[in-house]
Inverse folding.
């Protein structure tokens, strides 16, 4: 299978039998088109960019992830936890175009961070987002950061 990336995000998957395209805006997955079909699956995401619902015509498929991203797959998931694509066999996420692999089962990276323990990576070289997946993301596997998308509520005085 050939995988094409745009800004460290997989956008096209081509195999001898089919092709799939993911349409993104910034880091957020919006839709998936499989094969030559003109029908697209639309993706609803939460504020942390995790896919929570796919819609294709009249079919609604809710998705549910644990705080650290564990998901019991029922079908191939192309845009999952934090908007990333899990490996079809292991369910792990190759963040940063495969720079570091993250396991949702052990809730840790499988390799140490090169900028830990004294840099941006934090004190634990294997920890995912400083053990705060509710508020932080790590799209490239190098350092945790706040997501670009946040819902802002204005207060009335």
């Amino acid at each position: 299978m050939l995988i094409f990336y745009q800004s460290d995000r997989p956008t096209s998957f081509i195999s001898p039998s089919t092709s799939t395209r993911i349409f993104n805006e910034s880091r957020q997955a919006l839709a998936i088109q499989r094969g030559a079909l003109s029908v697209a699956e639309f993706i609803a995401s939460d504020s942390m960019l995790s896919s929570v619902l796919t819609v294709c015509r009249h079919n609604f498929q809710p998705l549910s992830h644990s705080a650290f991203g564990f998901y019991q797959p029922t079908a191939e998931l192309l845009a999952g936890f934090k908007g990333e694509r899990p490996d079809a066999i292991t369910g792990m996420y190759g963040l940063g175009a495969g720079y570091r692999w993250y396991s949702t089962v052990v809730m840790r990276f499988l390799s140490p961070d090169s900028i830990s323990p004294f840099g941006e990576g934090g004190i634990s070289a294997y920890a995912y987002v400083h053990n705060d997946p509710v508020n932080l993301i790590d799209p490239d596997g190098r350092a945790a950061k706040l997501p670009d998308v946040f819902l802002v509520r204005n207060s009335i005085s």
User: Anything to note?
Assistant: DSSP finds one helix and ten strands in the chain. Residues 95-98 form the longest helix (4 residues). The mean pLDDT is 84. The chain has one domain: 2-131.
